[in-house]
Amino acid sequence: MSPNIQLLPNYQAKSLREQGKRYYVDEGGIRFPSVTTILNATKPQAAKEALMNWRDRVGTVEANKISSAASRRGTSTHKHIQRYLLGKNVSVPEVARPYWESVEPVLQDIQDVRLVEGSVFHYGLNYAGRVDCVASYKGVPCVCDWKTADRPKASVARLYDGPLQLAAYSGAVNQFYQDYGIKIDCALLVVALPEMPAEVFWFEPEQMANYWREWEQRVAEFAKK
């Protein structure tokens, strides 16, 4: 890390679930719906139908098994990325090793880490989330998101709401840490894949501005529910 780059205060907000929705609670005791809760509640009908069709096709038991395995590998991979970015020793178990080996070369291009796995709030639009990382990728400040998959996404369209999630996090980071001179307008989404290099999706300011407008629409739609 550069001498003039300092870690941002890392706020670990309490989270709670109510009726299938996740909320984060700030220091004043005010609760805010999470980014993923808003995205899930406002998911386009076509996306909802695609998910239901997949569950019908593979069966409920198999669908739950696949989802649970994906959640476990994602959590494990995130934990080891977090340790690496904070300069700690990394000892990766076999279940996560293929994904770690996929993403590790990308991590070597991450510099000037400011925040890792921190809670952020947007008081203007009334939402909160937990951002994976705020750092620089190849010298450009950005918000980073780490994902795992069994096969390549191959296109931005197959990231589904991933770019909107990044737009939401960047907006919250910019507001939550405005007193620290933070201004993030780029984003990085990395998909770790077994037995192959990770996919790297980079989003420029113009793209992020478009995703931000779409995110604002989703937040407004959620508020009407």
Structure description:
The termini are far apart. The model has no long low-confidence stretch (mean pLDDT 90). The strands form 2 sheets. This protein has a 5-stranded mixed sheet, with helices on both faces. A 3-stranded antiparallel sheet has the order 1-2-3. The longest helix has 26 residues, at 60-85. It is built from 6 helices and 8 strands; from the N terminus they run E-E-E-H-H-H-H-E-E-E-H-E-E-H. Strand 4 (110-122) and strand 5 form a beta hairpin. With 225 residues, the protein is of the alpha+beta class. Helix 2 (45-58) packs across helix 3, helix 3 packs across helix 4 (97-107) and helix 5 (162-176) crosses helix 6 (205-223). It has one domain (14-223): Alpha-Beta Complex (Lambda Exonuclease, Chain A). It is globular.
Number of strands: 8
Tally of separate helices:
6
Measured as a percent range, the helix fraction is 40-55%
Major sheet: arrangement of strands: 4-5-6-7-8
- Major sheet details: 5 strands, mixed
Distance between the termini: 44 Å
What is the average of the pLDDT values? 90
Element order: H for helix, E for strand: EEEHHHHEEEHEEH
Cα shape: globular
The name CATH uses for the topology is Lambda Exonuclease, Chain A
Radius of gyration computed on alpha carbons: 17 Å
- Show unreliable segments: none
CATH architecture assignment: Alpha-Beta Complex
The CATH C-level name is: Alpha Beta
Number of domains: 1
